[in-house]
Amino acid sequence: MSGRARIGVLISGRGSNMVSLIEAAQAPDYPAEIVLVASNRPDAPGLARAAAAGLATEAVDHRAHPDRAAFERALDAALRRHGVEFLVLAGFMRVLTPWFVEAWAGRMLNIHPSLLPLFRGTHTHAQALAAGVRLHGCTVHFVVPELDAGPIVAQAAVPVLPGDDEDSLSARVLVQEHRLYPAALALVASGRARLEGGRVMFAEGCGTADGALVAPALP
Questions:
Q1: Interatomic CA distance for residues 173 and 192, integer angstroms
Q2: Pick from 9, 121, 12, 101: which is nearest to 62 by CA?
Q3: For 4-36, what is each residue's pLDDT tens digit?
Q4: Residue 110, annotated as binding a ligand
Q5: β-strands 108-112, 86-89: how paired?
Q6: Are 160 and 136 in contact (CB under 8 A)?
Q7: 68 is in an annotated binding site
Q8: Is 112 tagged catalytic?
Q9: 24-78 confidence digits (pLDDT tens)
Q10: Is the domain defined by 5-193 classed in CATH 3.40.50.170?
Q11: Domain map of the chain by residue range?
């Protein structure tokens, strides 16, 4: 036993955030190890990427089960077979039922491409552009039954630049997603951030209080 927290990653597609987590977990001092990558889509490209990295993979096809409850029971069983302790959603495109969320309460993270609570749901970059915000970004949060509403672990902000479209803004946010998710998982896996009474509690010394990101830059 390594003593590191055992992580399961759920994906539905290429798993770009999964790759950033895999790379982070290769560091010997990283407090978590990925023990399973699972997908609801057997053809998800991320499964092959995970296997190429030497990780265990499982496909739990939602279409092969009669209903959502049966699918989630099969998924939960696969996670427990591999001894998963914390669950990370990385582009997992299934809405989870309250039963599954409660089973993994305080142990399941998601990353959302906006500064929550702004712009829940899909097409967040279009929402941000339409709203005219000057800062946009991404949020890592604990998963709760309400979509994109869980207690926040970490956020990263980027400026919205003149001339931005969805693609350029998305690309800028994605860079920060790949940095933020491994850092947030490390906080949770090491016990430095934990869910208590619906709020995220941090160990002493987490975070800094100096400086601010201002956009547009002020003289």
A1: 25
A2: 12
A3: 999 999 999 999 999 999 999 999 999 999 999
A4: yes
A5: parallel
A6: yes
A7: yes
A8: yes
A9: 999 999 999 999 999 999 999 999 999 999 999 999 999 999 999 999 999 999 9
A10: yes
A11: 5-193
